[in-house]
């Protein structure tokens, strides 16, 4: 951040260590603020937590590295580059899709699992020309439509990023701008739904699904997500899909883990290196107080994955002087005559000049703030459309899992019933669409030799009841479905297993209704219609993360942190 504070080091407490909070902390520290970040859990990175079990290492949340330009821009703000902290491996294929055409009928399935009649799959390749041929083979004429669609998608991406995403336009007056007026024709073209927009280009349901699957990661459905998000196809096909990998001179894996977690790692049988691991450029990985940081826990985290990106941002924050307090659950944020009171569950109190909240926005308003300091009432939060939660099954299995790719999608011929189960009439899906992440296809360090590491993610409605009996039935259903539609039978090879669902999202992240992502990107919840990053009720109180602009996803949260920090600095001038 270019602007520096003129007064002597005002203090800021950031509540929550997700990517939005980490980004805000970096920008504010760089602007001269004295920044302390408080995190409820034992790891930094928010939903980008890591799980280690029996030699298997899992990214528990985000697993797609998309929009590399955003990461380059973020680190560039501080005179760094992503490659100072981690490397990138472009995935080949970017992802694989199994379509459930050729599957047995419901009555046949009721008699027990069995082989599918045919394998119907498509690979999305790093080579755009190969993808064009794939589209043409599925639907004559779709190759030309593919080129036209991606040209439009690129134009929309570049316009949207420069005019609407990197610029914070969360207030009505921010839209009275010549750049916005020039971009208005594009915006007006894209106020319809993604479904109708994609149907204008492709007739094949399979191609329509390929162009719309990313909407799940935006927390929406094709019917309720604005066509503006066609720009994600530029991200997908033109910018590429990557996997972060550790490098010799980069950040030590485990930087985002709690320093005193070493004993837990040793108990699990992992080797614990000597303390005092190195950060970028050989610098000691320490917190602001000079204590040894968790960069020493190199064996406690996967060598690659999104967790490594969290490590990188934490390392950068420490270099900029940010202090971290983990295992610190904030229970109260209140305005005082001089600054704020921030109280934690252990009775600790802090009195900063400013507060940035990266916790779930609705939770913070309802549980942390007194009623008179809230910007939105209960009715507002009750009327929001929350992004899906997820049923997650982390599995360590014996042997390989070919033909699953690093990123694999399994899609029914008609996915509308699943979206209805999420957004219209909440229910556990009968014919689910789901995602499998198999990092062991790329990274040998995430599983013991001779084993594979994967997780299954099924989007489900937020707020869904997820008792043990229901989960057990759904687990069996999903494992049967994987066997039937991909040919990979995991059921008798599982040696490590963990579940995560609606209840865990609510408990671990204080997520409203157990949402896995935040607020959905519906037309009513896009741009200035999202909750504001400035409190409307209290001066000096700010919010960042997936509830605010620009929205959901790691890149968007990094940008959100920048917006929030800029707003705070501007208000202090």
**Unreliable stretches, pLDDT < 50, 5 or more residues?**
103-118, 260-302
Query: Within the CATH hierarchy, at the fold level, what is the topology of the largest domain?
Result: FAD/NAD(P)-binding domain
Q: Compute the gyration radius: what is it?
A: 23 Å
Arrangement of strands in the largest sheet: 7-6-15-16-17-14-18
Shape verdict? globular
**CATH homology superfamily of the largest domain:** FAD/NAD(P)-binding domain
Largest sheet: 7 strands, mixed
> What share of residues is helical?
25-40%
**Broad CATH class of the largest domain:** Alpha Beta
Strand composition percent: 15-25%
**What is the CATH architecture descriptor of the largest domain?**
3-Layer(bba) Sandwich
Rounded to the nearest angstrom, the distance between the terminal CA atoms is: 14 Å
Q: Structural class of the secondary structure composition?
A: alpha/beta
Mean pLDDT, nearest integer?
A: 86
Record field, number of beta strands: 19
**Total domains:** 4
How is the topology of this model organized?
Layout: E1 11-15, H1 19-30, E2 34-38, E3 50-53, E4 56-59, H2 68-76, E5 87-90, E6 95-99, H3 106-110, E7 121-124, H4 128-138, H5 142-165, H6 178-189, H7 194-199, H8 205-212, H9 232-239, E8 242-245, H10 262-267, H11 306-319, E9 323-325, E10 330-336, E11 339-344, E12 349-350, E13 354-357, H12 361-368, H13 378-382, E14 389-398, E15 407-411, H14 416-423, E16 434-437, E17 451-460, H15 468-486, E18 494-500, H16 502-509, E19 541-543, H17 554-572
Helix pairs in contact: 1-11, 1-17, 4-5, 5-6, 5-9
């Amino acid at each position: 951040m270019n602007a520096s504070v003129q007064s002597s080091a005002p203090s800021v407490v950031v509540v929550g260590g997700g990517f939005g909070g980490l980004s805000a902390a970096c920008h504010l520290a760089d602007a001269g603020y004295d920044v302390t970040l408080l995190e409820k859990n034992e790891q930094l990175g928010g939903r980008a937590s890591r799980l280690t079990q029996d030699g298997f290492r899992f990214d528990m949340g985000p697993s797609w590295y998309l929009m590399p330009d955003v990461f380059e821009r973020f680190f560039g703000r501080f005179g760094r580059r992503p490659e100072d902290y981690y490397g990138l491996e472009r995935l080949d294929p970017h992802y694989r899709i199994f379509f459930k055409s050729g599957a047995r009928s419901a009555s046949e399935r009721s008699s027990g699992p069995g082989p599918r009649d045919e394998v119907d799959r498509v690979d999305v390749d790093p080579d755009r020309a190969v993808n064009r041929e794939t589209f043409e083979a599925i639907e004559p004429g779709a190759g030309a439509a593919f080129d036209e669609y991606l040209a439009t998608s690129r134009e929309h991406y570049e316009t949207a990023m420069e005019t609407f995403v990197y610029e914070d336009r969360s207030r009505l007056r921010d839209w009275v701008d010549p750049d916005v007026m020039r971009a208005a024709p594009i915006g007006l073209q894209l106020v319809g739904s993604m479904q109708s927009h994609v149907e204008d280009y492709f007739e094949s349901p399979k191609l329509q699904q390929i162009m719309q699957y990313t909407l799940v990661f935006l927390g929406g459905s094709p019917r309720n997500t604005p066509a503006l998000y066609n720009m994600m196809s530029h991200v997908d096909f033109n910018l590429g899909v990557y996997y972060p990998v550790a490098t010799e001179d980069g950040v030590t894996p485990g930087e985002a883990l709690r320093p005193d977690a070493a004993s837990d790692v040793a108990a699990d049988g992992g080797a614990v290196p000597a303390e005092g691991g190195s950060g970028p450029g050989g610098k000691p990985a320490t917190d602001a107080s000079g204590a040894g940081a968790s960069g020493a826990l190199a064996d406690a985290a996967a060598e690659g994955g999104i967790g490594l990106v969290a490590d990188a941002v934490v390392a950068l924050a420490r270099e900029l002087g940010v202090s971290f307090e983990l295992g610190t659950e904030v229970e109260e944020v209140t305005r005082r005559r001089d600054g704020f009171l921030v109280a934690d569950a252990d009775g600790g109190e802090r009195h900063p000049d400013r507060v940035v909240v990266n916790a779930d926005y609705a939770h913070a308003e309802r549980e942390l703030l007194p009623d008179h300091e809230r910007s939105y009432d209960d009715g507002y939060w009750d009327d929001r459309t929350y992004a899906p939660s997820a049923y997650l099954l982390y599995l360590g299995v014996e042997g390989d899992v070919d033909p699953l790719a690093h990123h694999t999608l399994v899609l029914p011929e008609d996915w509308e019933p699943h979206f209805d189960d999420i957004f219209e009439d909440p229910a556990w899906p009968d014919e689910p669409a789901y995602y499998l992440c198999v990092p062991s296809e790329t990274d040998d360090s995430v599983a013991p030799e001779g084993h594979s590491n994967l997780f299954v993610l099924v989007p489900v409605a937020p707020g869904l009841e997820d008792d043990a009996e229901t989960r057990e039935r759904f687990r069996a259903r999903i494992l049967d479905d994987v066997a039937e539609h991909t040919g990979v039978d995991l059921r008798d090879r599982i040696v490590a297993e963990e579940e995560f669902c609606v209840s865990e999202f609510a408990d671990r992240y204080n997520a409203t209704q157990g949402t896995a992502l935040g607020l959905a990107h519906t037309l009513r919840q896009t741009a200035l219609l999202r909750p504001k990053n400035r409190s409307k009720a209290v001066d000096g109180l700010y919010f960042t993360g997936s509830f605010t602009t620009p929205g959901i996803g790691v890149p968007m949260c990094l940008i959100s942190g920048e917006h929030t920090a800029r707003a705070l600095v501007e208000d202090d001038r």
